[in-house]
Amino acid sequence: MKYIIRNSFILGVALLSLGISQRALAQAQVILGQDESRRVITTAVPFLAITPDARASGWGDGGVATAPDANATHWNPAKLAYLEPSFGISGSFTPWLSKVINDMSISYLSAYKKINQQQALGFSMRYFDLGDIQLTDRQGNLLNLVSPREFSLAATFALQLGENLSAGLTGRFIHSNLLSGTTSAGGNDGQAGITGAADVGIYYTKDIVFNGREGNWAFGANISNIGAKITYLSEDQADFIPTNLRLGGAFTTYLDPYNKLTFALDFNKLLVPTPPVYERDSITGGIVFYPTGSRVFCVEEILTAAYYPVCSVLLLMLLTALVRSYRKL
User: Fold this and answer.
1) Strand order in the sheet with 119-129
2) For the chain, which residues make up each domain, given as ranges?
3) How wide is the angle at C-alpha 237 spanned by C-alphas 125 and 37, nearest 5°?
4) The whole model's pTM is what?
5) Which of 21, 75, 125, 133 has a Cα-to-Cα distance from 262 of 20 to 30 A?
């Protein structure tokens, strides 16, 4: 057990350090109206980070260590291993920006099935409908009507590694159709963006007695959306997906057989690099992301290029350690 916890801690620290340290090149094209003095972090497919269920939303997006339910595939896949019912399903429909527009919505469906007392399988689907958008040119002349859509499909496996510890792994397919039917200023036709991602989570739970009442301590960690960039036009204009590290804990005390009180706290770190400063204009002092002539090469680019391969190796090491430990149980 100490071996598992030690490897998990090392993995978390390593991934967090890489996520903070890495940097990526900004796109060469400057968006019209963008303030070049600011280094804004942006990602593609942000719908993956939107809270899918009402309970966690009411808790301020807390869920990595709270009591497990059918929505655990979003918050921490490892929690599925501790669900008591053998089967569960959950769904939600959320009108998006309904005060502004009436044809945007997010739909979410998730389900799980216990294989046995220690293992569980999960499935989830998320669909983001952005409504109909009328395109115009710079003079306001009407162009074509587009209907952007995004969706993701995910499968999860969760395993109890002991009485109090579990681990979970999720694989996700992502499809984002935002620019189909459009053409960029450079003449490139827009296309649907497709990529894959993975989540890995760890969950620790222990029943206790607090102040004469039954209670529970729980701790969780989850790294979500570890995957390749996604592109809509060309490979040199690819965007990061919202890779996120979530750490948290929860304390529950049972007031009586029908009521309980839970305190939960989550910490989040978006593992997406900030556009680096390669040069500053000698006259204006503005940031030059792509210097004139050959591009400046720096250590940050090496970290960016190595980030996902290193993450993959670390995750493989962790899963190997978990499997070996499970076989010894």
Assistant:
1) 87-95, 105-114, 119-129, 149-160, 165-177, 193-210, 213-227, 244-256, 259-270
2) 2-179+188-277+290-328
3) 105
4) 0.74
5) 125
State the amino acid at position 316 in one-letter form.
L
Tally the residues of the chain: 329
Run of H or E residues at 81: none
Least confident of 64-68, 81-85, 278-282: 278-282
Q: Positive or negative, the Cα torsion across 53, 57, 62, 67?
A: negative
Per-residue pLDDT tens for 130-162?
A: 988 887 878 888 878 888 999 999 999 999 998
* Cα 303–Cα 243–Cα 161 angle in degrees, nearest 5: 105
Tens-digit pLDDT profile for residues 292-327: 433 444 444 444 545 555 565 566 566 666 656 655
Angle at 20 between CA 15 and CA 26, to 5 degrees: 120
User: Could you tell me whether strands 193-210 and 244-256 are parallel, antiparallel, or unpaired per DSSP bridges?
Assistant: unpaired
What one-letter code names the amino acid at 267?
F
Q: How far apart are the first and last CA of the chain?
A: 10
pLDDT for the residue 134 = 83
